[in-house]
Amino acid sequence: MANTFQREKIRGVFTAMDADGDGALTESDFQELAARWTAVRADGDHARLTRVMTGWWSTLRAAADADGDGRVTLEEVLAVVDVLPTMPEAVNATAEAMFETVDANGDGRISRQEYRTLIEAWTGRPTDTDLIFPRLDLDGDGYLSRAEFLLLWRDFWAGETPGTPGAWLFGLFPTEATRLPPGGEAAPPHGLLPAAPSSDGPPTRRRGLPRAPPSEKAP
């Protein structure tokens, strides 16, 4: 059974994915995220992003929609999260698909701006990720490598312990478990920090909600 820390971080992502705010995830929520992501992506590859998001929806529905009503609730997602540690291949497949999508220029690594674009698509608003990115960049080279991203992804979805780098993958959430250590700033009440100009240029304002990646089996 998911502990308080897991419930809090998964709830934050679930809320971002639930584009219409009805308390359940449906195919239309994933289509909406694809539209949001297209809007903030320089390449605007809507067809590809839609394939990725609807593919993830199909996988999530197959794994989590226990009652077959075409809607996935938070409790159903958490039920899948409970068994993720026993499904490393599925978790890795999802992480690989997500990495390929976030790596917009295909250079095999995720830059600060590519990460920021992901989070702004997710939150639907300009977001300052400059405090978060260094905590994810495990080797300090200014990028997230494929290996780093896979580790962070597994840690976020299957990890049970606060304070590990993967807990920050989808940004700062207002929980005691994921508060910044001494000297940092606490997160504001709903998710990520307000936008501030980044070193890669100013963010583009978008309205709406975001969400997450594709997979082979579960989040």
How many beta strands in the DSSP annotation? 6
- Rounded to the nearest angstrom, the distance between the terminal CA atoms is 16 Å
Number of domains: 1
Assess the beta-strand content as a share of residues. Answer: 5-15%
Summarize this structure as a short list of keywords or feature phrases:
single chain; 219 residues; mainly alpha; Recoverin, domain 1; two-stranded antiparallel ribbon; globular; disordered C terminus
Task: Describe this entry's structure for a reader.
The protein is mostly helical. The chain has a single domain (4-194), classed as Orthogonal Bundle (Recoverin, domain 1), CATH 1.10.238.10. 46% of the residues lie in helices and 5% in strands. It has 8 helices and 6 strands; from the N terminus they run αβααβααβαβαβαβ. It has helices at residues 4-17, 27-40, 46-64, 74-83, 88-102, 112-123, 133-136, 146-158; strands at residues 24-25, 72-73, 109-110, 127-128, 144-145, 193-194. It has a two-stranded antiparallel sheet. Strands 3-5 form a two-stranded antiparallel ribbon. α2 packs antiparallel against α3 (46-64) and α2 packs across α6 (112-123). The longest helix is centred in the first third of the chain and has 19 residues, at 46-64. The two termini are 16 Å apart. The relative contact order is 0.22. Mean pLDDT is 77; it is low at 174-218.
How are the elements arranged and paired?
Layout: H1 4-17, E1 24-25, H2 27-40, H3 46-64, E2 72-73, H4 74-83, H5 88-102, E3 109-110, H6 112-123, E4 127-128, H7 133-136, E5 144-145, H8 146-158, E6 193-194
Antiparallel strand pairs: 1-2, 3-5, 4-6
Helix pairs in contact: 2-3, 2-6, 5-8
